């Protein structure tokens, strides 16, 4: 009996249950529980942990930002993570099939599919750019190190070549060292920025001017999709083996870059910029909003991926333990990545003789401009560049695996017959080919405009709506007593009281911002002015162009309110 209990615990099951009858022969299961944990870590820990969180922390009060960040993790992030894992594991269905719990809300599952589709299209384009930089780093000298290339402009000023500062018609630099010269350079553009804009992207002047498709990027996009397809060719059976490398090796690279970074001159200054608390910023609502959005989007809630990955768990797996471990690992990785990023940026700022704020950036500007430029200052810079971009590729692939598997699982579960179960590989191939074709416009000269547009608007407020409806439908339509009993049947214990309170009250209030998001807009009411009587009388007047003169019905109370926003625009944020 002891041996059986120990074996069950190794598989993440309730000790009193036999593990054999947990096996889902129709859909399949993870080879072991480590595969699920590593896949979920790879899904949650993505590019945003490296290139967005450190900048948000620096911008929103340094160490003081950690307080609202971990508050949001505790009251919103972990509870939602646990809910989605338990939801998918109990039903053993993807993001569509789970809504048998309440068929009226199946549209939420379709919403998750749409979100995963949008993100999957442009996310692989970012991975393909990382592939391009990875291949470009296989040279003795990095191509963005100097300003002597055909694509460079007279405004280019390289940190490694002081003579490049005087390119063009500008006056000679003032006497002094390179830092002094750079500080007095007018309109300086770095060689890494010009390499990014003028060579890699060949950026057009307008979002509507697509220009030509960049064939090198198109080729790398094909490589990205081929890699993703091959890793998912047998579903979770194959991807579960790949994540042993893709989910763990980024931590090896982060540690190598961290050790190298903290030994550089100026690294301590950069880290202090990252961590120095500015406690006055805690009182700003924007700081709390950024903390909530980073937790929300970093964990991948409402994308459908968590439900999908958990659906391949054995029924009695302890997903409560997994949700806490994975969530904390994700957030700890974000904090750790900040030390890696700002140690190098501090070194670069020290080398240039400028403030760290002058070189701090986020998103593509950090990954493909600022950090590559900093790497050129290191000895054996191609080696560090190869490691950095290989890490970005692995971080991106970990998320992309789950995005593609979410779509494939939803389609297969929805059809549900034996034929499509046997042809799941062809479904995966079809989805991958469709994703490649839809990503081709993003490799054009205007592609980066569309990529950033999709990144900011494709999955923003929709995720808030999806999560809130999911909480409401499970807790109040299906019934919280029923769901708590389901979890007790699955895990052997009910969800802790803290999670019960968060699911019913706290998390919906945070993610939906009930105070602002549920109020009607101030211009709500009848469309025609003559119908705006009673409580609708004190509303926004027509514009002067309408040529109408409106007399208030109650002149003594005719205080015209200012047009307000429903708050949704504040929730648009970067997924990458």
From TrEMBL:
<keyword id="KW-0479">Metal-binding</keyword>
<feature type="transmembrane region" description="Helical">
    <location>
        <begin position="457"/>
        <end position="479"/>
    </location>
</feature>
<keyword id="KW-0769">Symport</keyword>
<keyword id="KW-1003">Cell membrane</keyword>
<feature type="binding site">
    <location>
        <position position="395"/>
    </location>
    <ligand>
        <name>Na(+) 1</name>
    </ligand>
</feature>
<feature type="transmembrane region" description="Helical">
    <location>
        <begin position="66"/>
        <end position="87"/>
    </location>
</feature>
<keyword id="KW-0915">Sodium</keyword>
<dbReference type="InterPro" id="IPR037272">
    <property type="entry name" value="SNS_sf"/>
</dbReference>
<feature type="transmembrane region" description="Helical">
    <location>
        <begin position="248"/>
        <end position="275"/>
    </location>
</feature>
<keyword id="KW-0532">Neurotransmitter transport</keyword>
<feature type="transmembrane region" description="Helical">
    <location>
        <begin position="108"/>
        <end position="135"/>
    </location>
</feature>
<feature type="region of interest" description="Disordered">
    <location>
        <begin position="545"/>
        <end position="576"/>
    </location>
</feature>
<feature type="transmembrane region" description="Helical">
    <location>
        <begin position="324"/>
        <end position="349"/>
    </location>
</feature>
<protein>
    <recommendedName>
        <fullName>Transporter</fullName>
    </recommendedName>
</protein>
<feature type="binding site">
    <location>
        <position position="49"/>
    </location>
    <ligand>
        <name>Na(+) 2</name>
    </ligand>
</feature>
<keyword id="KW-0813">Transport</keyword>
<dbReference type="InterPro" id="IPR003028">
    <property type="entry name" value="Na/ntran_symport_glycine_GLY1"/>
</dbReference>
<feature type="transmembrane region" description="Helical">
    <location>
        <begin position="295"/>
        <end position="312"/>
    </location>
</feature>
<keyword id="KW-0029">Amino-acid transport</keyword>
<feature type="compositionally biased region" description="Polar residues">
    <location>
        <begin position="562"/>
        <end position="576"/>
    </location>
</feature>
<feature type="transmembrane region" description="Helical">
    <location>
        <begin position="425"/>
        <end position="451"/>
    </location>
</feature>
<feature type="binding site">
    <location>
        <position position="44"/>
    </location>
    <ligand>
        <name>Na(+) 2</name>
    </ligand>
</feature>
<feature type="transmembrane region" description="Helical">
    <location>
        <begin position="383"/>
        <end position="404"/>
    </location>
</feature>
<keyword id="KW-1015">Disulfide bond</keyword>
<feature type="binding site">
    <location>
        <position position="298"/>
    </location>
    <ligand>
        <name>Na(+) 1</name>
    </ligand>
</feature>
<feature type="transmembrane region" description="Helical">
    <location>
        <begin position="215"/>
        <end position="236"/>
    </location>
</feature>
<dbReference type="GO" id="GO:0005886">
    <property type="term" value="C:plasma membrane"/>
</dbReference>
<feature type="disulfide bond">
    <location>
        <begin position="147"/>
        <end position="156"/>
    </location>
</feature>
<dbReference type="Pfam" id="PF00209">
    <property type="entry name" value="SNF"/>
</dbReference>
<feature type="transmembrane region" description="Helical">
    <location>
        <begin position="36"/>
        <end position="54"/>
    </location>
</feature>
<feature type="binding site">
    <location>
        <position position="330"/>
    </location>
    <ligand>
        <name>Na(+) 1</name>
    </ligand>
</feature>
<feature type="binding site">
    <location>
        <position position="42"/>
    </location>
    <ligand>
        <name>Na(+) 1</name>
    </ligand>
</feature>
<feature type="binding site">
    <location>
        <position position="45"/>
    </location>
    <ligand>
        <name>Na(+) 1</name>
    </ligand>
</feature>
<dbReference type="GO" id="GO:0046872">
    <property type="term" value="F:metal ion binding"/>
</dbReference>
<comment type="similarity">
    <text>Belongs to the sodium:neurotransmitter symporter (SNF) (TC 2.A.22) family. SLC6A9 subfamily.</text>
</comment>
<dbReference type="GO" id="GO:0089718">
    <property type="term" value="P:amino acid import across plasma membrane"/>
</dbReference>
<dbReference type="GO" id="GO:0005283">
    <property type="term" value="F:amino acid:sodium symporter activity"/>
</dbReference>
<keyword id="KW-0472">Membrane</keyword>
<dbReference type="InterPro" id="IPR000175">
    <property type="entry name" value="Na/ntran_symport"/>
</dbReference>
<dbReference type="GO" id="GO:0006836">
    <property type="term" value="P:neurotransmitter transport"/>
</dbReference>
<keyword id="KW-1133">Transmembrane helix</keyword>
<keyword id="KW-0812">Transmembrane</keyword>
């Amino acid at each position: 009996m002891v041996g059986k209990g120990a074996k069950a615990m190794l598989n993440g099951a309730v000790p009193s249950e036999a593990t054999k009858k947990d096996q889902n022969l129709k859909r399949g299961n993870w080879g072991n529980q480590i595969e699920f944990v590593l896949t979920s870590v790879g899904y949650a820990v993505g590019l945003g942990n490296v290139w967005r969180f450190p900048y948000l922390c620096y911008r929103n009060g340094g160490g003081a930002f950690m307080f609202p960040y971990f508050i949001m993790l505790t009251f919103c992030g972990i509870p939602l993570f646990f809910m989605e894992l338990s939801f998918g594991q109990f039903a053993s269905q993807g993001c569509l099939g789970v809504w048998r719990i309440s068929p009226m809300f199946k549209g939420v599952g379709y919403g998750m599919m749409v979100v995963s589709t949008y993100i999957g299209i442009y996310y692989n384009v970012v991975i393909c750019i990382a592939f391009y930089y990875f291949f470009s780093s296989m040279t003795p000298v990095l191509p963005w190190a100097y300003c002597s290339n055909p694509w460079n402009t007279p405004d280019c000023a390289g940190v490694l070549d002081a003579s490049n500062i005087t390119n063009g018609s500008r006056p000679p630099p003032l006497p002094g060292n390179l830092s002094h010269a750079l500080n007095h350079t007018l309109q300086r553009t770095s060689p890494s920025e010009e390499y990014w804009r003028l060579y890699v992207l060949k950026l057009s002047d307008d979002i509507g001017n697509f220009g030509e498709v960049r064939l090198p990027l198109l080729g790398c996009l094909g490589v990205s999709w081929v890699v993703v397809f091959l890793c998912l060719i047998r579903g979770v059976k194959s991807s579960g083996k790949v994540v042993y490398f893709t989910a763990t090796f980024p931590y090896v690279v982060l540690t190598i870059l961290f050790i190298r970074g903290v030994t550089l001159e100026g690294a301590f200054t950069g880290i202090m910029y990252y961590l120095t608390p500015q406690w006055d910023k805690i009182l700003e609502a924007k700081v709390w909003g950024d903390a909530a959005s980073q937790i929300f989007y970093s964990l991948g809630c409402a994308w459908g991926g968590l439900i999908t990955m958990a659906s391949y768990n054995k029924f009695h797996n302890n997903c409560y333990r997994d949700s806490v471990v994975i969530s904390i690992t994700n957030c700890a990785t974000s904090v750790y990545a900040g030390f890696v990023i700002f140690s190098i940026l501090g070194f670069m700022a020290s080398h240039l003789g400028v403030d760290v704020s002058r070189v701090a950036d986020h998103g593509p500007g950090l990954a493909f401009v600022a950090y590559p430029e900093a790497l050129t200052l290191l000895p054996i810079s191609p080696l560090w560049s190869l490691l950095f971009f290989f890490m970005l590729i692995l971080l991106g692939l970990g998320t992309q695996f789950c995005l593609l598997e979410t779509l494939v699982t939803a389609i297969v579960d929805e059809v549900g017959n034996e034929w499509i179960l046997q042809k799941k590989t062809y479904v995966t191939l079809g989805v991958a080919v469709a994703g490649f074709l839809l990503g081709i416009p993003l490799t054009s000269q205007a592609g980066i405009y569309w990529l950033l547009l999709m990144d900011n608007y494709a999955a923003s407020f929709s995720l808030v709506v999806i999560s809130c409806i999911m909480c409401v439908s499970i807790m109040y339509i299906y019934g919280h007593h029923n769901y708590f009993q389901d979890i007790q049947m699955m895990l052997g214990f009910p969800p802790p009281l803290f999670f019960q309170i968060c699911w019913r009250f706290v998390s919906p209030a945070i993610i939906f911002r009930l105070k602002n998001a549920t109020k009607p807009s101030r211009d709500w009411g009848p469309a025609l002015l003559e119908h705006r009587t009673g409580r609708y009388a004190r509303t926004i007047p027509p514009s002067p162009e309408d040529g109408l003169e409106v007399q208030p019905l109650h002149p003594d109370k005719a205080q015209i309110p200012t047009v307000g926003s429903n708050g949704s625009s504040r929730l648009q944020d970067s997924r990458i």
